[in-house]
Amino acid sequence: EEQKRFLMDLGMGKVKFAILIAGRGGGKSFLLAIYVCWRIFCFDFWGITVMGGSAEQSGKENKYIKFWIVNCKGTFNEHEIKMIELSPRPTKKEIWTQSNSYAIFTPCSDTAARGPHPKELILDEQAAGEKAGKGEIIETALGQVSTSSDMHVIKASTAQFVFGDFLRTWDKAEEIGYTRYHWALAKHISGDTDIYKHYHDRDPDMWISNVAWVKTSNIRAFRKQMSDDKFLVEILGGIGKASGLVFNRDDIEDCTC
Fold first, then answer.
1. Which of 20, 72, 108, 120 is geometrically suited to a Cys-Cys bond with 129, CB 3.0 to 4.6 A?
2. Rounded to two decimals, what is the model's pTM?
């Protein structure tokens, strides 16, 4: 339902600034690829930059969309779909449509951050990029949409790093105009959807899959093997207290002004 709400809100024009947290393997990149397809194939002169926390991450949406194009035999509504591969810069990919809309898929780098001026910017696995020390690059990339006539920004990630722009945006979402979205790979058998109330439950039999593409047996194996904090972040799509830190986030806040 939350995935449906995300796409419907964007599709109906209810949301221009969205932030999404989900567990690893929760379908974030696949959902973003669906959205990018809809935008560039249904709107004229619509440009999107998709920047991943790594080159591999930005390549996922690119791969999903091109697989769909191949299955459509390279056409959409009887029009040829143009695809441009920039061989001198192999980590940068572009897809152009018959209506002169495009999507550019880039890694998180200084060069890419100072790239084109699209209408929309999508940051996929932003927290991973920030954990790798690329927070300043990500903030620079936001300048790409400074001249957009219809500015949209989507920030998506697993929350494996508790400092940086991604978590600040999540914490202040309502204040700064972002809409929050969240979903988990697993759910507690009690039916209670409060993940912070139940993530300490280490009984694997109390957990079942919450998405069609992940088996319950996998969820229960992860519950046995993972610490509470890692299970919260990686499977339940929550915000851990110590992800990527030596000290607990709350302890640090209590000791600083």
1. 108
2. 0.84
